[in-house]
Specification:
Elements: E1 2-8, H1 10-13, H2 20-31, E2 35-41, H3 45-57, E3 62-66, H4 77-84, E4 87-88, H5 90-103, E5 114-119, E6 122-129, H6 133-154
Parallel strand pairs: 1-2, 1-3, 3-6
Antiparallel strand pairs: 4-5, 5-6
Helix pairs in contact: 2-6, 3-4, 5-6
């Protein structure tokens, strides 16, 4: 199955900073057997929404974002994500914050969302992860714990 990683970082998109968190997430997905690709876009609702929409149109069944989930004025990934979600999965975002806060209290400031969006490949799981390499690594570990089951459920599978 196809997974797409969308990194929201104006500095990484401009080549001013390495996309460490995106690389961590891609490596974890590939190690878990996903066909995974990544894209780096500037911060902001419109560019992130366009990247999410392109990933869904390409047939991604899992779309993971890194970056743009905090409270900085440029952090608008949750707003872009809300525009593509058909249904939110608040428990996923809550668990990511809970696990993150166990490592660093600042993780409680994350505004990341998770939910279901529909693309050309069918329904997809969409999850926002923080842009910090540690937060991205911890977050993708949890996403990989639930992604297979979530997609089976989206395809009508039984519990």
């Amino acid at each position: 199955m196809l997974a797409v990683v969308v990194t929201a970082s104006t500095r990484s998109a401009a080549g001013e900073r390495d996309d460490a968190s995106g690389r961590i997430v891609l490596d974890a997905l590939r190690a878990a057997g996903w066909q995974a690709t990544g894209v780096v876009t500037t911060d902001g609702v419109a560019p992130v929404e366009a990247a999410l929409t392109a990933a869904l149109e390409a047939g991604a069944r899992l779309v993971v974002t890194t970056g743009g989930t905090g409270i900085n004025p440029r952090d608008e990934t949750p707003e872009a994500t809300a525009r593509v979600l058909g249904r939110e999965l608040p428990g996923v975002a809550e668990e990511l914050r809970r696990r993150g806060a166990a490592a660093t209290p600042a993780a409680a400031l994350s505004r990341g969302l998770a939910g279901v969006a529909v693309g050309s490949g069918g329904p997809a799981l969409v999850v926002n992860l923080p842009g910090s390499p540690g937060g991205a690594a911890d977050g993708i570990a949890f996403v990989l714990e639930i992604a297979g089951h979530a997609i089976e459920q989206l395809d009508g599978g039984d519990h």
